[in-house]
Fold:
Amino acid sequence: MFSIKSAIPSKNKLSLSVLLIILLWFSIVPMTKKWGNPLTWDVFGYYLYVPATFIWNDVALKDFGKVEEANLKYENTDSYYQGSKTEEGNWMIKYSMGLAMLETPFFFVAHKLAPSLGYPADGFSRPYQLAMFFAHFFYLLIGFIFLRKVLLKLFSDKITAILLLLVVIGTNYYTMAMLVGVTPIHSLEFSLVSIFLFLTISFHENATKRKAVFLGIVYGLIILVRPSDILVGIIPLFWGVSSFKTLKEKITMIFKNQKLEIVLFGILLFVVLFPQLYYWKIVAGKWLLFSYNNNPGEGFEFLSPYLSELAVILRLLCLHIIHIYDLVSI
Structure:
């Protein structure tokens, strides 16, 4: 007789059982909540590439009225802080397009179904909203599947099961992925990095051209989803390195035996990043730029530290500590 227990292979059974429980939990929780429009606030900005490209045919948002019309109808955001106007007169989206790229297949499904379901094919009606829900949970599940694969390469089945549970109940992952809202950028990046780690380990076990191609693609998506995570690229470089000697040996081996793989990695990385570079070029006239600079109040101010404000905060903190000490002494 068939049973769930018999369907689970004996090898690594505990971690697989825990994984299935987590995936089931993450699949049930959304059904217990009443979800509103997910294409709001920051997500609206990340997603805007998609309708601008495939519906409006106006990626530079020259006709900004379409954005205002969609916003008025679906109440996506109170103000368009997600972008800014360039010197060329275009409206530039400040976020990079990685999330939009990963949402595009789900968008096309919604775009095909919307008219037959009685909804406008405008990129923002309910079918598109539901498609983004499915996109988020699809990538969430994929991320945990690859996380288990990574952990099993490094730890035993029992330790892997414990670590999977700890990620859910011992970190802020569950809050960011399930409670904050749909398609949060952080949980998507978690999934991409899990895949990247698996490919890194697999490539070092057996370096092939196919794995180099996938490494380049995933690394490009990681950068496009969250550009600051370009630092993830040091993981393959230093994987297995424990000293200057092993680092030197690894570099020598790469340039001696894996030149083609490195070239393929670089080509696919560039192919994935090129749409973003091209977008900046046609919208702002530059191949590379820091899009957040166009929004006042955002960014780092390394040359203008808030030392006076910090002094005030420290003074108030000291006064509170003294006050508490006096109360305890009484």
In short: The chain has one domain: 41-284.
